Amino acid sequence: MNNTELITGLLRLFAGMGVFLMACDTMSKNLQAISSDKLKKLFYKVSDKKLIGVMIGALVTVAIQSSGATTVMTIGFVNAGIISLNQAATIIFGGEIGTTITGQIVALGMFSGGGIDTDVLFASLAGVGAFINMFAKSDKQKLLGKVLAGIGMLFVGLNIMSGSMKSFAQTEGLKMFLASIRSEFLLIIVGALLTGLIQSSSVITSVAITMIVNGLINIEQGIYLTLGANIGSCLTGILAGMKSDSINAKRTSLLQLIFNIGGVMILYFIDMFLQGTTRGTFSFAILFERMFPGLPHTQLAMFHTAFNVASVLCVLPISDALVRLTQKLIKDDGRQVGETRFHYVDENMVATPSIAVSQIKKEITNMAYIAIENFNLAMDMIKKVDLSEKERFEANEKELNFLNRALVDFAAKLTGKHNIDKNDYLYLLSTYRTIADFERIGDYSENIMEYAEALKESGESFSEDIIKQIDELDDLINHLCDVTIEVYTGAVSRDNKAAEQLEESIDVLTTKMSEDHIQRMNKGDFSANVGAQYLKLARDVERIGDHLMNINTKDYIVSH
């Protein structure tokens, strides 16, 4: 092979890898979109039963064709406090089993017989999927078309890579160089580095399969490249853990790294022991060659699946001990309990919009409870002229300000995802106003607290009849807030009549308070300072009612 042929072969290899990577990305994103509801249900079924966690991790990874995405999702759930570190461990273990499906698909596509080759049949799905996407009317059908196109593109990329391997196989120098790499440990390192660079263990495993089929490497070399790919696949989780502020998120990524490195090292030493004691007449490579004679692509794919399944079964009984180990290695950082943070959402959830949308609704609902708590604290302060809860109020206000900024940023990232469901997209558009409404309720509550401070400073207070009016207004707002949250969370169907009646009662009462203010001022029942705080209080509470009604009357409150 001359230089021109060598360069052409390398370009074909990169082209094939590029198509393969894009195919994996297309499959992953569209499978997530088409199975969004099922994904949400699966994750919410995580329990303390370890096998259920493994099954969920495997199914999710098969559904979205990405163990990296499963790891990132799991880290997000741990960070948000939805699942425990122990539960996350079982999901990640399951993800390691699910990720082997790509290798099985590739191996299946490399069977050939007297008729049309299987890989050509699979590659033709790219055209079938493209036509479905072009002419389908429903969104579901279009997504299905994109999934089929992704599967087809995967085999198109595989064919291109295989063609480059055939040209390389004619180069004696390259074959001799690859054959000279006999160090299993070096092959593990090469597999890990390549996977870390490409960010896809599926590509490295598939390249190894095509190299074996074309005689560039043997099954033993393919096995150790694949083992290295297992370690390299941890990089996605490590990066997600590093970006997260959560200690448990970092522990989750470390847990995956310990699991994968530990499994690979144990197999490595067992294999070295077997080769040493049998003088090279038996090893894992020889075992799978005997099990699947004449099928090198199946040998590597089956080894990968068998190894990952065996690793999970061995580590599952000691998973709790592994969790405790990560807790010792990464200790708590002693953060303050009141520190502002998300309670249900994590940045890593952006990778799976369908689940993130469910969580953002919970986060906004939490914001609603914080806002109404501050309203009640402010009302108690002004009625009693007692500022003992001011520190708690200020902590809540700080939390509201954080959620206002952070939730808007998070929703913006989600709306920018091209694989987001239409209903989810419409819901997210409504969240910007909802978040702003709850934040404004917090601001008006802060005004009321400041009115209480003004009364405290002047040594004045409201009379008993005024406090009775304020109590009545307080009850109406809390009732309207309860109705609003029930509607928003989907606990009850929307019925604007109840909310409208409450808002009308609030408007009537605040109007009466304004009229009473004038009469009391004329009679000299209270000072100008008390009258001013009383009037401003009535106006601010009326505006709080208006913001609650804004949320009740939104067009795109979609139940998730």
**Helix and strand composition category:** mainly alpha
Q: Which bin fits the share of residues in helices?
A: over 70%
Give the CA-based shape. elongated
- The number of distinct helices, counting runs of at least 4 residues, comes to 24
Largest sheet: none
- The separation of the N and C termini measures 60 Å
Taken in chain order, the helices and strands follow as HHHHHHHHHHHHHHHHHHHHHHHH
Number of separate strands: 0
Percent of residues in beta strands: under 5%
Rg, alpha carbons: 31 Å
Number of domains: 2
Question: Unreliable runs, pLDDT <50, ≥5 residues?
Answer: 555-560
What is the average of the pLDDT values? 82
Write structural notes for this entry.
With 560 residues, this protein is mainly α. The protein has two domains: 3-329, no CATH class; 347-552, Phosphate transport system protein phou homolog 2, domain 2 (Methane Monooxygenase Hydroxylase, Chain G, domain 1, Up-down Bundle), CATH 1.20.58. It is built from 24 helices and no strands. The two termini are 60 Å apart. Mean pLDDT is 82; it is low at 555-560.
